[in-house]
Amino acid sequence: MTPVEAVKFVQFVSALWPQQRLEDETPDAWYAAGLKDVEARDAAEAATRLANHKVFISLAELLSEVKALRTERISRSALPAPAPELADRPVDYQAALKDALAEMAQGFALPKQIMAKVEPSTEYTEIRGADHDPARIAAIRVPCPWPPCKALPGAVCVNADGRRLSAPAHEARLKAAGLAEIEGSP
């Protein structure tokens, strides 16, 4: 959160708890004491949740609620495995894991239920027609781990320019789907 967002957030808190006394210095103090480390949308969601059962709010309660919110997001998501080529580079592997956890905590990772098993719809396979490739269909059940692509389950892989691949999927996605041995994979 930025200092400007902290001012807007304290105004939001004041609207949620009009009976609570907030001084002109409150945004600066709360920013320095912890809001600087919190995303504005997380703070707003935490405050909204607290408003349901708190008559007054402290910064400590708010920060605890943000932590609980982020923990819930992580528990609803599946940690994607870093790229296999990072296995021999522990520092890069650890950085990839850290980035994946941060993405999950911010709510940008897919819930476990979505990642569990994705079957392409009948409509999708009908539209694919002659281009219906069993390797592509099998690969789209998992997300593509290739950084420029990052296709979600159910979506086809794209190249660095954002255009659809002519190959079934990226090699990393085929490996993630357990299909690396299929002929014709990129």
UniProtKB/TrEMBL annotation:
Domain of life of the native organism: Bacteria
A Pfam family this chain is assigned to: Phage_zn_bind_8
Domain DNA-binding phage zinc finger: 134-178
InterPro entries the UniProt entry points to: Phage_Znf_bind_put
Name of the protein in its database record: DNA-binding phage zinc finger domain-containing protein
Originating species: Nonomuraea purpurea
